[in-house]
Specification:
By secondary structure, the chain is an alpha+beta fold. Helix content is about 25%, strand content about 40%. A twelve-stranded antiparallel beta sheet has the order 1-8-9-10-11-12-2-3-4-5-6-7, with helices on both faces. A hairpin with a 4-residue loop joins strand 6 and strand 7.
């Protein structure tokens, strides 16, 4: 192939790349609404407002909402609920948190069955529950939609940060509005729009979807409303799969700080929540623990505790920064990777893998490690 042919191929490739980039920008202009912004005229704005108010916000079967609020009990636990409704199907997933720390309960409701996974004791509860027990969530959403219709949509004024643009020449567009204080709440709203004549399809709504967020001191709610059928089956599968994955996640102790001191470097450990770590914390409440650790296998430092902790060993692939218990009486600090039977203790926080490896590597030889709560 001669130089002239190569140059022609390069020019052709560059031309095609530029054309593809331009096409991508123009086709994506409903996302990048500022690419060629053009304000909507008053008549179109009115049509869009009317569609949101009289069509989107009057069909609760297509509401997709996230609700955050404090449970009405003495513990003050915080619950985050997500409700997905479309095509006559409903699925709810939720997470319950204590005042501080990791989630204590993961839950999902679908087709009359509620499953709850207790992250503390690693147990699942499955019960038959009628959707009426979640009526408070559905009422919350409908009341919020009514608030949007009567207090937000068609309002006469916007803050200076609000915009309402179409993206010329395709007729796609976005709008965003901000309210700092409406009945004691902060509200933002946005929607994606498309002019029917631009795509020559009378079946498409003038608004594809609207998304509103509202927050106050009592909690927050987000509401997505779709003008066309939403893929609820895919959403259901994803939520059910995520719930099953949540059962595999370890829980942590976040209200206790444990530190490793190595050669004057103090490293914080995020502890897993299990019998071994609880027993270790009890020991540390009495006094600090100092051990001598040495290298093993070129990927870990191992030191004997001098006593035995409760252990429930399982096959684990440990990585840099992991802290494990081996056979109940030895602490293992990893600066490499290994798969073996361990009980999880924690992981080193706040340091990069490179720094951890540097502090623990084989070149350091034997090191003295102090565990403490301060």
């Amino acid at each position: 192939m001669n130089n002239k042919t190569v140059k022609k191929l390069i020019r052709a490739a560059l031309t095609i790349s530029i054309l593809l980039c331009c096409a991508s920008l123009f086709c994506s202009c409903h996302v990048f609404a500022w690419y060629i912004p053009k304000p909507y005229d008053e008549e179109t704005e009115t049509k869009i407002y009317d569609f949101i108010k009289n069509d989107l916000l009057t069909n609760p079967s297509d509401y997709i909402a996230s609700v955050s609020y404090y449970l009405p009990n003495e513990s003050g636990d915080n619950a985050n609920y997500n409700v997905f409704r479309s095509e006559d199907k409903t699925i709810i997933n939720y997470t319950i948190y204590p005042k501080e720390g990791s989630p204590t309960v993961y839950g999902v409701w679908y087709d009359g069955e509620r499953k709850e996974w207790n992250a503390k004791n690693k147990r699942e509860t499955v019960t038959q529950v009628n959707i009426s027990q979640y009526e408070f969530l559905l009422d919350y959403i409908e009341h919020y939609a009514e608030f949007l219709k009567t207090r937000i949509v068609n309002a006469a004024s916007f803050s200076k940060d609000s915009y309402f643009w179409e993206c010329f020449p395709w007729g796609m567009g976005m709008a965003q509005m901000y309210y700092d204080d409406v009945d004691g709440m902060k509200v933002t709203g946005s929607w994606t729009v498309e002019k029917k004549h631009a795509v020559k399809n009378d079946n498409l709504p003038i608004v594809f979807n609207a998304d509103f967020d509202c927050s106050s001191e009592q909690g927050s709610i987000g509401l997505d409303v779709y003008g066309s059928p939403y893929g609820i089956d895919e959403r259901i599968n994803n939520i059910l799969n995520n719930y099953e994955e949540s059962k595999k996640r370890p829980s942590y102790i976040e209200d206790v700080n444990v530190y490793l001191t190595i050669n004057d470097n103090k490293l914080k450990i995020l502890l897993y929540d299990n019998d071994a770590t609880r027993a270790l914390v009890s020991k540390l409440e009495q006094s600090d623990i100092t051990i001598t650790a040495d290298d093993y296998g070129g990927f870990e430092k191992v030191g004997n505790l001098g006593f035995t902790l409760p252990h429930n060993d399982e096959l684990i692939t440990a990585d840099i920064g992991d802290v494990m218990l081996y056979q109940g009486n030895s602490i293992v600090l990893f600066y490499g990777e290994n798969t073996w039977a361990y009980t999880r203790l924690g992981t080193i926080m706040g340091y990069s893998s490179g720094l951890i490896k540097e502090m623990l590597s084989a070149s350091q030889g034997k090191i003295h490690i102090t565990l403490s709560l301060t």
